[in-house]
């Protein structure tokens, strides 16, 4: 993940099981992910949007679970505008959230759909599912999957997260959320950044977290995965899905 992000210890997803996820691809390679909020807006990690030149040459692809190809059902869009939380200071700091806008909206199909947001300030508990195309290696040598991965993870308390992170605990904030397990090789890693942490409540997928960072090498004992807690930023998300009045879009991109 840049800062540090991937799915380790996961399994291949089934087709149509995660229609809300998009991959961000630069020169054909996936470097981050995001979640569809509505036809025109996708939410991701702020650190995925650190380079303006990079962002505006990124393809946002929905409806495809494959890393090295796209299906006929996939929808490819450019990023025409983006917003980064102005409280984000970079790297593993809090408020690692951003929004991207595509002028040509996504069309809802069996493989492309939006995800619901949680209620404001709710603190999630229990288990959740994290999704991503990030490295599946627990060494410093990255190994990337061909198919989108998913892993069941357990939400842990902030106190347990702080204890496990030790010297990096100072980077944690009340707007973060952590998952374990702390004893098994399962969690996020490089290129999972911006992707969704999801709970299914009453048959509805709810976006509870956005992949932010983890320690490298990934999946080590006592190495939690750290996310942006979406419920802490509901107001910001709502208020920033807008285009500046003077915004000009390129005719051909």
Automatic annotation (TrEMBL):
<dbReference type="GO" id="GO:0006508">
    <property type="term" value="P:proteolysis"/>
</dbReference>
<dbReference type="GO" id="GO:0004252">
    <property type="term" value="F:serine-type endopeptidase activity"/>
</dbReference>
<comment type="similarity">
    <text>Belongs to the peptidase S1 family. CLIP subfamily.</text>
</comment>
<dbReference type="Pfam" id="PF00089">
    <property type="entry name" value="Trypsin"/>
</dbReference>
<dbReference type="InterPro" id="IPR001314">
    <property type="entry name" value="Peptidase_S1A"/>
</dbReference>
<dbReference type="InterPro" id="IPR001254">
    <property type="entry name" value="Trypsin_dom"/>
</dbReference>
<keyword id="KW-1015">Disulfide bond</keyword>
<feature type="domain" description="Peptidase S1">
    <location>
        <begin position="7"/>
        <end position="242"/>
    </location>
</feature>
<dbReference type="InterPro" id="IPR018114">
    <property type="entry name" value="TRYPSIN_HIS"/>
</dbReference>
<protein>
    <recommendedName>
        <fullName>Lectizyme</fullName>
    </recommendedName>
</protein>
<dbReference type="InterPro" id="IPR009003">
    <property type="entry name" value="Peptidase_S1_PA"/>
</dbReference>
<dbReference type="InterPro" id="IPR050127">
    <property type="entry name" value="Serine_Proteases_S1"/>
</dbReference>
<dbReference type="GO" id="GO:0005615">
    <property type="term" value="C:extracellular space"/>
</dbReference>
<keyword id="KW-0964">Secreted</keyword>
<keyword id="KW-0720">Serine protease</keyword>
<dbReference type="InterPro" id="IPR043504">
    <property type="entry name" value="Peptidase_S1_PA_chymotrypsin"/>
</dbReference>
<keyword id="KW-0378">Hydrolase</keyword>
<keyword id="KW-0645">Protease</keyword>
<comment type="function">
    <text>Protein with lectin and protease activity involved in the establishment of trypanosome infections in tsetse flies. Binds D-glucosamine and agglutinates bloodstream-form trypanosomes and rabbit red blood cells. Capable of inducing transformation of bloodstream-form trypanosomes into procyclic (midgut) forms in vitro.</text>
</comment>
